[in-house]
Amino acid sequence: MLVLGEDQISSMPTVEKLTEEVAMASSPDSFDGLPMASPESPSSTLVSFTDVKVVPEQQQKGLEQTILHLEGEVIGLRLKKRSLDAKRREALNKILDIKGSIRVFCRVRPFLITDKRRNQEPICVRSEKLAVSFGGSKKEFGFDKVFPQNASQEDVFMEVEPILRSALDGHNVCIMAYGQTGTGKTFTMEGTNNLPGIVPRTLKELFDQASMDSSNEFTFSLSMLEVYMGSVRDLLAPKPSNRIHHGSSKCNLNIQTDPNGCVEIEGLTNVSVSDFTQASRWYNKGKRARSTSWTNVNESSSRSHCLTRITVGRSGGTEEAMEEFSKLWLVDLGGSERLLKTGATGQTLDEGKAINLSLSALGDVIAALKRKRGHIPYRNSKLTQILRDSLGDDSKALMLVHVSPSEEDSGETTCSLNFAKRVRAIESNKELPEDLKKQRERRISELEEVMRDAEEECQKVRNQIQKAELILHETKKLFKARYRRLQDNDNIIPVKPQECKKELTGMPQTAEKPSQRNSSSSLPRFMTSTAASRHRHGAVEEEISSRVKPLRPLHRVSFQFSGSQSISYSDTHFRTSLQGSIKKPRHGDANEPMRDTTNCNGLDPKTPSMPGNKRVTTSYSNLKVALPRHRRRMSDLI
Ligand SMILES: Nc1ncnc2c1ncn2[C@@H]1O[C@H](COP(=O)(O)OP(=O)(O)OP(=O)(O)O)[C@@H](O)[C@H]1O
Q1: Which atom belonging to ligand 1 lies closest to the Cα atom of 190?
Q2: Could you tell me which residue ranges the Kinesin motor domain spans (predicted)?
Q3: Pocket around ligand 1: residues whose beta carbon is below 6 Å from it?
């Protein structure tokens, strides 16, 4: 793929300049007289024509050059947008790295009606620290973020959101909810209809963000599984195999790891989802299939780990670009309670044991990753085998530890917080020194500013691309409409400017000698008509010319491009179609600010009606050299 150099991009006139000039040129003042050869214009070839069918070669070439010039402009802008996007991604990645690739948040559940309240609450939240009183002593734990009892679902999601962007940027991401039974793991991940949790919000956010990113194509697919008693169960499998817990191929799936460390689960249902509604429907189906049972602590306690995987496919928006995939795991872990308290016996006791074993294996893996040990004990549980490629290098993990506010749960709370401490590997009283902390915060805010600037700039470039594409589209449409029609026309008669005056004052036209050119030979390749279309157009043209003899008065719309190119069209078709396009954005993206396009193109609906007249001039000196390159790049990138 050919890539434009910085100097080439910067030497191109910007779309702002183009549209500004378009606006100027299309103001009524710009139609101040007859089209005449400009003394400044190096192209002394400027000729005016009294007939819309008169098409000198220069005019056609000028239009071709404008098209190619605009194509170059669009490519340049796309490259600029790509580099800004890379800048934003790099800044975000650095921020997440500084914050830690495995971060631990804590959420304290509010009191429930069923909780026995005491005067003395065992838990005390202070900024990013949480103190627990248990057995006569008070212990403090530090977190990356603590959500107190009154924190809303939005508050939690706001902190989770940046990591989602990482998944769209190509990183594997894992968000896990950990905690004792009944502390709100499922509430945080699933939420309720009125208070949706992380999973539904994530699905919505991913589709929203993907629709705003016009430089990448995204695809999404969804899988859901449950690690139940050490076996992997497909939650989206067709019903019959779902019901049978044993002996079905969908009930104990194999986990495969390739030499690069990429994990795949054999036979796991993976459904493509194209919008939020579809994704939610599948997610709700998977939820219903999850194993739950009654315990003393929580009426519908989850007896398994429930894992939702969103596979994000991302391609650079070009045909040649390979699609890259990243995984986003949203994990609602089974309750971490000590088994005696739950009153579990029989199968429920076994389920509890299985959950605890795998949670302990998860703790070992994260602790080993934190200490950057050579050997990471992924193989000790199904859970860690599945998450292997989303917990290690280059991936981002977030653990939300849930605790109860009740005094009677303070033993369990301490256990959960000890687990979190191990995962986080930093105890609050061994926190970073104050100056280092400040330095870290400063660096993070610098990077956040870089990210914000890149995003803002990116949005501007996105708008510029839209405008340039709109003008390009309409120019191409005009080119097609005009020159295809004229290919078979032998009566192409250029006339001198003076004669144009006569036309405007109602004088009869004087035809000069017909043009001998073969218009198709000078058409850009993308405009060349096929034999069939030529035949079709020829037939239509014949019919039209036999019926319509006199010239109808036409409106003129004028475009003035930088690089001393100007085009003015006396064409109602072009004018109407351009206005139509402005009213209705071509890309249909409601979020893209298209409304100001009208102003940028400067089309004045009150543009005076002018008799048939066309003018094309060009003196963009570098264009000829740059044309073939632009064209190749266009095919590389679009
Ligand atoms: N932040 C919260 N705000 C309001 N209600 C909450 C909150 N957290 C939890 N709850 C309520 O507490 C109860 C238990 O929560 P939930 O089922 O999410 O716990 P859990 O940790 O997933 O339990 P298990 O491990 O047994 O599945 C539910 O009724 C839930 O609505």
Answers
A1: 18
A2: 101-426
A3: 109-110, 112, 179, 181-187, 298, 301-302, 335, 402
